[in-house]
Every structure is written in structure tokens, then in C-alpha cells.
Inverse folding.
């Protein structure tokens, strides 16, 4: 990883994903996401920077459930960015779709624009009992009421790892656990892989090169919308599937 | 006319009323623009981190700590007491245990020393009042700044501090007054940060500090 | 300036500039204090994080974890990359141990009951007083046999101390799990002659036949199995195939290439029938089977089994064919397959499938776990529900004078019809070691709160190990949270409390140590002297440096020390037809909740807000039912369903009709319905375990928890089922616009 500039990205292998939700809690813990109460779910206002969606196919006895983890795709051509009146969301030179909390005024235009539903509005001031506040990650801002938030690819880890590498005059390592987002480290099946698209030797590039070929499994989530995501997905394999598409 | 019907009466102000109305309107506009101008000043000043009404004198600390004595006269380096400053995010105020390495022997009879010693013996901490503070959504790391200036630009570690903190070495509170207290001299607002980052070709991406 | 721009703008809009100025001057005072403490550890630097290794024990298995500590507080859990079971991954439950540490409703000191039982009125007492009280209870027992210690499954040094305590005081000890694994362990013992659960080499298997066990989400060691599953799917040139046979559509069924519905309790017959098919094609490995074994599956022809199990003849035949022709076949089973009156027989048949392809000790097969390096550290075996029922009977007749409870929530986990809830008042003294007011702790007379996982010492020799000798080490990664309450209040380690109690009672535990940490160090010293293992004692100049390395690494393991895989097969057995409790029209299948497991994690808010993989439901108890069946009964999502078993007991759950649940089956997650247990779980949802009928395995006495038949009625009430998934009908959509894309893999070069 000798690049001057990085372009962070992720590969999500749906064929490995079991839907176990370990990533969801790892993310909630790392990023100070408030406890989603029953009412928050009922009002569709629960915040999950990463979530597992489940899709049904068929019915008993020939029924399938497909799981797909969905995070911010850090789109190269993000629909959320141009609509922000205060430039609180923009694409930075590391390929991240950044949400600047202190700029955000909460118009929620970006959430309307996002086809992946990965942007969340803080309808409430986040609350924790006093003792649980001990767990909060000091590297991540606690978002107050009235602003948007979303997956950051754990930018705080990228910052720390980059700074420490700089301090010790070493190069960032591909797949370094200190650099990986929390969800990637928690995944038991290795279904999530994080890396730098600008590094030709990175694991994600190797997978991309292999799976982008004819007959490969790579696809972009809702890629026909032209968002050019920085996350690529690998198709689930189902030998009994008739076509190449599920639902 | 049916009961309940309402007849509009055309308002015809007299000349006298017209004059009064225009005078009132003029003063009303004057007051309004006055408020706008004052607020504009207040807002700009606040954005630039300048004190608005009250002079920035620095808070009263529980112990009158003479920085001048330690730095100027005894020649101690900032990093001797603020030990975290070149290691991680925060600079750290020294533990009283560290104070006691010298002050178990020196400084008898001084008010501050007596107070510090008694706190040390009671196993109680000193509650200093914070002088420099950035908001929660700013992730400032001392270590990176010290490292940059000392390694890349060859500035001595302790000289780096004064870039943001001013000449703390010569801040010495005069007893009984507010003069000379340790105070914030730079605005420490985003403009201040960004100016310096631009000067030194440091990243100005929002996600450098805000995440 | 403490005023945020946001506040500023709000105020600008709302009021005059003067208000802004005043606001600007008011800074919350505590935000401005910097604490200059008296002493601080050298490594405590604000912003600097340290990761400390420890071990998270979860039922039959464990995970090595590292915990991020900043300024003395635990911030984040991640998997320990060195630990042989999880290799860096970790489960949601492991993460939530942070909330177990900082839970707002933790008990912060020993308590003694002041009100009536269950009233929740307690008074704080000192540890000295509490232990003196406990010791005096022991002294006043009319017979030490009348005291019973109930624990979860324990292993390592904790078990060592507990064993010594139990044997030197003469009390009895019984293990309790709400959903027991007795049948699994008995079956493994019968088939493989092993006292612990072998490692299943899912990583290298090419065909997995799993019966009833949701091994990707909850069964035994899901993190370890999921690690294997990733490899199994995409780690090799050939993608492995998973065939899952279960009466309910579980997370594992959802991930399977083929899910086969089987009538509850007939899983073993299907396994026998598969062997029958293999044998009739001459494709069975007979090296482990005696002549009489080969006759055993004679009668289980696919036609006969098909009529009982509902699995078609063709399905049995093709499974048999694929299984016998696969390079690395593997068969596993448990959970609902074992929770029947013929549960043990089912599992014996299922695990014998591995003998039929002889995959023992082979890549992609069954890898036995060797004995632990130090005798006495092995896990204790679970007691069956019938043994527990005998204890409850003693409780009823007032023969039990003292009940000690550690991590065993009897009040919650026992079916109501066993009668513990109505008769616990016959026990004059209940002592709980719980640090949360769980259902049993709240009826206790004396509470000696133990440390939480991240505050305590321990060792871990998992019942389901990685296939070689492993001793995980658990160390306190933070100071006890209630340390500030002083030595005489706060929480203490369970083993330490036992050791102190023994001292007060003048009982010598012959541990050769004063504190639990010393006990651990004695064990570590033995490991040091073994001079082998991945942390090899011979490479360290002193014990101290070995000890430090051990704690830094999170444990000791020797990947070269494996079992020799010699064993005696106990023989195939006939499989009885399952018998069910009650005659309701629905078959009730309770299942391990993805978040709460058997209920022990329900008090953690992160677990409450964790969506179930299939229903995506949170914070509630729901009942899975077939959507067509629901429609015909005029039941829609959120309808409150009353589920009645024939013993007259009833629970309520919210209907969740879905396309995957087989008709006639009701799936209800365990875990909710706690009467107590802190603000996040008390009074929430309902407890499916409470309505189960008392139906036991005919041989082992294990509770047949999946054999209850129930009737349902809609109460007429409808409550919105809280879930992540939206229930708004689909908008017309572009049919080429797929979210999940699927390939049949045929044209792919990748596999």
C-alpha cells in the first residue's frame, strides 16, 4: 500500500453471509449508535449503519430466504451528495462518502435521495443510562438530535491506523485489523473484506479482477441506477436457480 | 342590512396620522437595522472566536500554578509534566504523584504546595478548570501535531505548543487579580485550524477532524 | 466556547441576541473540569488504546476475545485472532459483554432479603457479613446432602474449585441449562466414545447433512462453525453443499442449498433410511459396523420412513447417493432433532452416518477432542431434566434446606408444570450468585453478586474444542466496576467467594492457594512445565514471563496434540416412534433465539434491539406460522395468539405469518418473558419454556422440549410486531432491478 491517495472499498460475499447479525452489533458498539427501542422500530426510525435484509423466494416447501448485508455504498456518483444544501455530505479524496455532523442542518434531502436506505436521521437526542456511557467510543462523535448519520467505513480507525503508520514510518497493511471496519473484523465467514481500490495487490482488487470476468460473481447493488458504488457484492450461488437473478 | 352583516369601512388616515405613522415607521426601521448590525458583529466575532463582551481572562484555578517559575526559571520542558502530549490525543495534566517527585522536598510553606500535598495525602484529585477546549465533533490529536512540527519542520517540541497555546511559559497569575492567568489566546475555531493546515499543506478534508 | 453552531442558530431564530450572549457564557461546569488524579498507570494515556485478551464462555463453547481498554474503560470487543475456535471473529453476544459490565441494573453489593420473597426488597450488607451468613447456613444444615448447588455447565479452574467445594462440604451439585444438551453428549459418547463434543471440520467438508441443528446461528459453537462455513462455501475450488433437514425453517435452513422438511421426531429414521439406501447400493463403509448393526437399518426402507417422516422416497435416495459419493461428507444433528422422546436414538442414528462414510479423524469429517492437558479441568456433564425434576420434587416435599444458584435461572427455565414456581417457598434458604436481578435471583434470600465476565479470572476448557488441547485464559481486563464501593461492597469472583466461604467455615479445599488467581497460576505453572504447545514453556526463561505471554495471548493450546481417534462404537439402535405431549392441532417448536439464546442474554439492550435473521423482529415474542394457514384462520401479523398446551398453560405471542413455516408447525423463540432481569427485559414478551409439557426422552430423561402439541386461539387483540423489515406492501417495481443477485454457478469459472 504505497499509494499516496487511497480509495477505500469493500467486497461483500453474499454466498458466505449467514445472516447472523454479528456485524450489526459490532457496528453499534464501535460507532456509538444509540439503543434502538421498540418504538423506534415501529416508527421505522431505528438506526443501523449495517443491516441484514432478508428476501423471500417461493413458499413452503420450496422456499428460500436470501440474506444481504447493506451498508453505505460510498458511491462514486452519490445521489445524496448534490442535494445537500449545506455541503454536509460530500465525497472525499479517499473515496469516502463523508457526513459532516457539524455542518448538517437536518433537511433529510440526502436520505430521500439514497436508493439504499442507509442514511439515518436522529429523530431523538441519543440516550444511554449513565453507566452504559462508559462504553462509548471516544473516537466517534455522539450525534445529537436533528442530524443525519451513516456508515463511515469506520473512518476513525482509518485515521488512527494511518496516523500510527505515519508515526512508526511503516506502510499501511492490506487487511490490517486496526484499519478494518468493526463489521469486517467481526464476520466469522469472511464475508466482508475491506481494502484500498488504489492498491493493485489488495485482496479486494484480486477478488474484483477474478469475479469481474465473464461468469464471475461480482455485481454492484442496484448498479443500473448509475451510482458507481465503492462496495461490490459477490452473487450468491444457488445451483437450483433457473436464471441468474433472484429477487 | 341583515343583522350580522359587516360593512367595510375604508380607512382614511388624516394628515397628522400619516406623519406620525411615517415617523414611527422610520424609527422602527432604524431599531431593526440596529439589531441586525449588532447581531452581525456578534456573529462574526463569535465565528472568529473573539471575546464578545467579556474580556478573556482565563478562569480561576484551584491552585495558582506558576508556569513561569517552572519553565522560565527552572527550565523544565512542557513534556515533562504534560506527558501524553507527544504520545496520543490528549496532553494530560500531571498527576499529583508526579508533582510530589519534587515537591515532597521543595516548596515548603507555599500555599499551593500545601494544598496540593494535603490533597495528595487524602488521595484526592485536583479539579483544574479547562482552558482550551474544542467541541466534541472535533477530533484533535496532540501527538500528530507535535510530531509534524518537530520532525518535518525541526521545531522543538515545547515550541510547538506555543503555536496554539500562546506563551504559557510567561503566564503567571498575579495574586488576587485576574492578570496573568493561563488563558486562551488563539481563537481555536475552525478557521484558525484550516489556515494553519493550508499553510503547511496538511489535509483540509472535513473527515480529517470531523467523524 | 461550549455553544454549538446548531444551538446558536436555533437561538438566533428564536430569541434576541442577548439570550445568545448569556447562553454563550453558561458552560456545563463538569465539562470544564480536568481531573488531575493522584496516581495513574504508566500506560494510561488519554486516547491510547490497549487491547487485552480474555475468553468468553458461552454455553458449550467459547470464543477468545480481545477487549479495547481506554482510560480504564472497556470500549470494544473483538475476536482474538490467535484463539483456535473463533480466530478473530466474534459473535454479537461476545460484543454485548460490554453491556453486561456496564448494565445500569447490576447488583453492586451483597444483598439480604427484607421483604417477602419476590417483593424485590433487599438490604445491602457487607461481604464479610454475607459470607458469615452463608457459612452459618452451612453449619445449621441438618444434613449437608440437603443443600444443592445449581450451576450452568462449568469447566476449567472454576469447575476445579467448585468440585473441591462441593466434595469437601458434602453438598450436591447439579447443572442446569434451560435447553439441555444431555442427548447430544450421550449420543456422542455412544457413537464415538467421547465425553466432549468433537470438532466438526466444516471448513473442509464437501457435503454437510445437518439434522435439526441451527449450527450457523445458535447451536453449540456458531462462531466456530460459521468460520468453517465461509471456507466451505467459497474457500475451495468446489463449493460445498449443505442439506438441512429440520421441521422448522431456521437460519441454517435459509442458508442451505436444500432444506428438507421432516415431521418432528423422525429425523433419526431418515438417517437410518439414508444408511439403508447406501447399504442397498453397497456404498456403505462397514469398518465400524458389526453384523448386527447392518441388520438394524434393514427395516428403515425409504418407503417406510417416507410415510412417517414426510420426506419423499426420491429425496432420501438422492441424499443417500450424494452423501455416499461426496469426497468429504459430514453429518451433524441436535437441537430439535434431539428434543423428542426418541431424541437420543435420533442422534445416534444421525452421528452414525459419519461412521457409514468413515470420516472420523479425516479432513472434512469428525475430529475428536483430546483430554485436557491437566486432569480435572474438563467440563462437567449436563444433568438431565429428570434429575432436575427429582430436585424439584425434593423442593416440593421440603427436603431441601439450601439452594445455591449460580448462572442457573431455574425460575425462568423450568416448565411451569414441574412446579418449582409454586413450591420454591418450601426452601428455607435460596442463595444466588447472580449480579443481575434475574427471575431466580429476585426470589433469593441472600445475593452474593459475582463479577461480570470482563472483571474476573478464569480458565476455559471448552466442551466443544477445536480438535486439539486448548486452555483459554480469562483475565480481568478492567477493574471491577463497583470497586469504588470499597472492599466490603461491590462484586467478587464466584470462585473467590467459594474459597473465602470455605476459609470461614474452616474447610480446607486443598487447592494450595489463597485466591483464585493463585489457583490459576498453579495451573499455568503446570502448563509451563509441560514444555510444549504453541506457547511453549521451554522458550520462556521464567514462569513470570510465561504467565505474561499466556495472558497476552489469551490462553494455551497445542495444535500438535490431537486425539488418536480410536474408539468403540456403541452400536446402532432401533428408533422408536416419537410420542407427543397433548393432542393440540399444532406442533410447537421452541427455538433458540438468535439474540438471547435460551434467555440468558435478554437483559442486554443490544440483544433486545438485534433483529432476528428471519423475522427481523425485535423486543418481542412472536410466533411463526404458515401464511396460508394463518389466512385461513383469519390471523394476520401482530394478532395476539394464545398458545395453549394441554396441561392448561398458556402464553401469548404476536403472530408472524410467513411463507416458510410448514403448515401445522408453530415456531416460538425462547428468551423473552422474564418476570425480572432489569429494565430492558422484565415483563417483555413471553416465555415459551413455561408451557412445555413434561415429556422426557425415554432413555436419558432429557426434556423433549420440541414434542408439545398445542392449540391456538386469536385473542382478538392486535399489537404491531416491532421489526426491522417494513410491512408496507411492495410498490410495483422494475423486475430487472434485483437487490440480491444469484448465480447458478454453472458458467462461473470461480468454482
Amino acid at each position: 500500500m504505497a499509494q499516496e491517495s487511497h480509495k477505500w472499498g469493500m467486497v461483500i460475499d453474499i454466498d458466505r453471509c449467514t445472516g447472523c447479525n454479528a456485524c450489526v452489533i459490532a457496528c453499534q458498539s464501535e460507532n456509538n449508535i444509540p439503543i434502538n427501542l421498540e418504538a423506534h422500530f415501529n416508527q421505522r426510525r431505528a438506526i443501523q449503519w449495517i443491516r441484514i435484509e432478508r428476501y423471500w423466494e417461493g413458499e413452503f416447501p420450496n422456499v428460500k430466504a436470501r440474506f444481504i448485508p447493506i451498508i453505505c455504498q460510498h458511491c462514486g456518483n452519490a445521489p445524496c451528495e448534490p442535494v445537500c444544501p449545506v455541503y454536509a455530505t460530500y465525497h472525499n479524496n479517499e473515496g469516502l462518502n463523508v457526513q459532516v455532523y457539524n455542518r448538517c442542518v437536518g433537511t433529510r434531502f440526502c436520505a430521500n435521495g439514497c436508493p439504499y436506505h442507509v442514511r439515518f436521521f436522529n429523530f431523538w437526542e441519543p440516550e444511554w443510562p449513565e453507566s452504559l456511557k462508559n462504553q462509548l467510543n471516544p473516537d466517534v462523535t455522539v450525534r445529537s438530535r436533528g442530524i443525519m448519520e451513516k456508515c463511515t467505513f469506520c473512518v476513525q480507525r482509518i485515521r488512527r491506523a494511518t496516523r500510527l503508520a505515519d508515526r512508526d514510518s511503516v506502510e499501511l497493511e492490506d487487511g490490517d485489523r486496526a484499519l478494518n471496519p468493526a463489521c469486517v473484523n467481526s464476520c466469522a465467514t469472511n464475508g466482508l473484506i475491506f481494502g484500498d481500490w488504489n492498491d493493485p495487490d489488495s485482496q479486494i482488487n484480486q477478488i474484483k479482477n477474478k469475479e469481474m470476468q465473464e461468469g464471475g460473481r461480482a455485481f454492484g447493488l442496484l448498479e443500473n441506477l448509475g451510482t458507481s458504488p465503492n462496495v461490490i457484492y459477490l452473487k450468491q450461488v444457488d445451483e437450483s436457480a433457473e436464471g441468474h437473478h433472484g429477487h | 342590512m341583515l343583522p350580522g352583516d359587516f360593512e367595510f369601512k375604508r380607512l382614511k388616515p388624516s394628515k397628522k396620522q400619516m406623519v406620525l405613522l411615517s415617523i414611527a415607521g422610520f424609527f422602527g426601521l432604524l431599531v431593526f437595522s440596529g439589531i441586525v448590525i449588532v447581531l452581525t458583529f456578534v456573529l462574526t466575532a463569535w465565528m472568529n472566536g473573539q471575546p464578545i463582551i467579556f474580556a478573556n481572562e482565563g478562569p480561576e484555578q484551584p491552585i495558582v500554578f506558576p508556569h513561569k517559575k517552572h519553565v522560565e526559571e527552572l527550565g523544565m520542558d512542557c513534556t515533562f509534566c504534560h506527558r501524553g502530549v507527544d504520545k496520543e490525543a490528549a496532553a494530560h495534566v500531571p498527576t499529583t504523584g508526579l508533582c510530589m517527585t519534587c515537591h515532597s522536598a521543595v516548596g515548603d510553606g507555599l500555599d499551593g504546595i500545601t494544598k496540593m500535598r494535603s490533597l495528595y495525602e487524602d488521595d484526592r484529585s485536583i479539579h483544574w478548570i479547562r482552558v482550551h477546549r474544542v467541541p466534541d465533533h472535533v477530533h484533535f490529536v496532540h501527538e500528530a501535531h507535535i510530531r509534524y512540527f518537530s520532525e518535518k519542520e525541526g521545531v522543538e517540541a515545547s515550541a510547538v505548543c506555543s503555536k496554539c497555546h500562546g506563551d504559557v511559559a510567561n503566564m503567571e497569575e498575579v495574586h488576587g487579580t485576574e492578570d496573568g492567568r493561563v488563558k486562551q489566546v488563539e481563537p481555536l475555531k475552525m478557521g484558525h485550524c484550516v489556515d494553519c493546515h493550508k499553510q503547511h499543506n496538511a489535509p483540509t478534508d472535513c473527515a480529517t477532524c470531523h467523524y | 466556547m461550549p455553544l454549538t453552531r446548531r444551538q446558536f442558530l436555533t437561538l438566533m431564530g428564536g430569541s434576541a441576541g442577548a439570550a445568545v450572549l448569556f447562553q454563550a457564557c453558561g458552560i456545563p461546569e463538569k465539562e470544564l473540569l480536568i481531573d488531575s488524579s493522584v496516581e495513574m498507570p504508566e500506560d494510561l494515556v488519554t486516547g491510547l488504546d490497549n487491547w487485552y485478551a480474555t475468553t468468553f464462555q458461552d454455553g458449550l463453547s467459547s470464543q477468545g476475545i480481545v477487549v479495547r481498554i481506554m482510560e480504564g474503560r472497556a470500549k470494544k470487543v473483538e475476536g482474538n485472532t490467535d484463539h483456535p475456535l473463533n480466530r478473530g471473529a466474534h459473535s454479537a453476544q461476545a460484543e454485548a459483554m460490554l453491556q453486561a459490565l456496564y448494565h445500569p441494573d447490576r447488583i453492586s453489593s451483597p444483598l439480604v432479603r427484607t421483604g417477602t420473597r419476590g417483593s424485590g426488597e433487599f438490604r445491602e450488607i457487607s461481604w464479610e457479613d454475607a459470607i458469615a451468613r452463608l457459612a452459618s447456613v452451612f453449619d445449621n444444615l441438618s444434613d449437608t446432602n440437603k443443600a444443592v448447588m445449581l450451576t450452568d455447565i462449568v469447566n476449567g479452574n472454576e469447575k476445579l474449585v467448585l468440585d473441591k467445594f462441593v466434595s469437601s462440604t458434602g453438598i450436591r451439585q447439579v447443572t442446569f441449562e434451560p435447553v439441555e444438551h444431555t442427548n447430544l453428549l450421550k449420543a456422542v459418547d455412544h457413537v464415538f466414545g467421547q465425553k466432549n463434543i468433537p470438532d466438526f471440520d466444516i471448513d473442509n467438508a464437501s457435503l454437510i447433512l445437518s439434522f435439526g441443528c441451527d449450527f450457523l446461528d445458535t447451536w453449540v459453537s456458531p462462531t466456530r462453525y460459521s468460520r468453517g462455513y465461509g471456507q466451505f462455501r467459497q474457500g475451495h475450488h468446489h463449493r460445498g453443499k449443505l442439506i438441512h433437514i429440520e421441521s422448522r425453517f431456521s437460519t441454517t435452513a435459509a442458508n442451505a442449498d436444500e432444506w428438507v422438511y421432516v415431521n418432528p421426531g423422525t429425523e433419526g429414521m431418515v438417517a437410518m433410511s439414508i444408511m439403508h439406501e447406501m447399504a442397498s447400493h453397497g456404498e456403505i463403509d462397514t469398518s465400524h459396523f458389526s453384523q448386527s448393526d447392518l441388520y438394524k437399518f434393514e427395516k428403515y426402507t425409504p418407503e417406510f420412513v417416507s410415510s412417517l417422516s414426510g420426506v419423499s422416497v426420491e429425496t432420501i435416495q438422492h441424499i443417500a447417493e450424494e452423501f455416499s459419493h461426496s469426497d468429504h461428507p459430514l453429518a451433524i444433528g441436535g437441537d430439535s432433532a434431539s428434543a423428542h422422546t426418541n431424541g437420543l436414538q435420533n442422534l445416534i442414528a444421525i452421528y452414525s452416518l459419519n461412521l457409514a462414510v468413515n470420516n472420523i479423524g479425516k479432513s472434512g469429517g469428525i475430529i475428536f477432542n483430546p483430554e485436557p492437558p491437566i486432569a480435572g479441568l474438563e467440563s462437567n456433564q449436563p444433568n438431565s431434566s429428570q434429575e432436575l425434576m427429582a430436585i424439584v420434587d425434593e423442593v416440593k416435599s421440603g427436603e431441601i434446606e439450601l439452594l445455591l444458584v449460580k448462572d442457573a435461572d431455574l425460575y425462568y427455565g423450568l416448565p411451569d408444570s414441574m412446579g418449582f414456581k409454586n413450591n420454591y417457598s418450601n426452601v428455607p434458604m435460596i442463595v444466588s450468585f447472580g449480579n443481575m436481578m434475574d427471575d431466580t435471583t429476585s426470589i433469593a434470600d441472600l445475593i452474593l453478586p459475582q463479577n461480570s465476565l470482563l472483571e474476573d479470572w478464569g480458565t476455559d476448557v471448552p466442551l466443544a474444542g477445536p480438535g486439539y488441547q486448548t486452555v483459554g485464559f480469562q483475565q480481568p481486563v478492567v477493574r471491577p466496576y463497583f470497586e469504588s464501593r470499597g472492599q466490603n461492597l461491590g462484586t467478587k469472583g464466584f470462585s473467590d467467594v467459594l474459597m473465602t466461604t470455605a476459609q470461614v467455615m474452616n474447610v480446607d479445599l486443598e487447592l494450595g492457594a489463597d485466591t483464585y488467581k493463585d489457583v490459576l497460576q498453579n495451573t499455568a505453572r503446570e502448563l509451563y512445565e509441560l514444555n510444549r504447545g504453541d506457547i511453549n514453556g521451554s522458550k520462556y526463561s521464567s514462569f513470570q514471563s510465561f504467565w505474561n505471554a499466556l495472558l497476552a495471548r489469551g490462553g494455551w493450546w497445542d495444535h500438535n496434540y490431537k486425539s488418536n481417534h480410536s474408539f468403540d462404537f456403541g452400536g446402532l439402535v432401533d428408533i422408536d416412534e416419537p410420542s407427543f405431549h397433548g393432542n393440540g392441532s399444532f406442533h410447537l417448536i421452541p427455538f433458540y433465539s438468535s439474540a438471547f439464546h435460551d434467555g440468558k442474554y435478554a437483559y442486554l439492550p443490544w440483544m433486545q434491539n438485534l433483529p432476528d435473521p428471519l423475522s427481523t423482529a425485535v423486543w418481542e415474542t412472536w410466533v411463526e406460522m404458515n401464511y396460508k394457514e394463518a389466512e385461513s384462520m383469519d390471523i394476520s401479523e401482530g394478532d395476539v395468539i394464545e398458545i395453549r398446551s394441554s396441561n392448561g398453560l398458556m402464553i401469548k405471542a404476536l403472530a408472524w405469518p410467513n411463507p416458510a413455516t410448514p403448515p401445522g408447525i408453530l415456531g416460538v423463540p425462547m428468551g423473552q418473558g422474564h418476570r425480572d432481569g432489569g429494565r430492558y427485559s422484565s415483563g417483555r414478551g413471553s416465555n415459551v419454556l413455561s408451557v412445555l409439557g413434561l415429556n422426557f426422552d425415554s432413555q436419558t430423561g432429557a426434556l423433549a422440549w420440541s414434542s408439545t402439541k398445542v392449540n391456538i386461539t386469536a385473542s382478538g387483540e392486535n399489537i404491531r410486531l416491532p421489526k426491522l423489515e417494513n410491512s408496507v406492501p411492495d410498490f410495483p417495481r422494475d423486475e430487472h432491478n434485483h437487490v440480491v443477485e444469484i448465480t447458478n454457478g454453472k458458467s462461473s469459472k470461480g468454482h
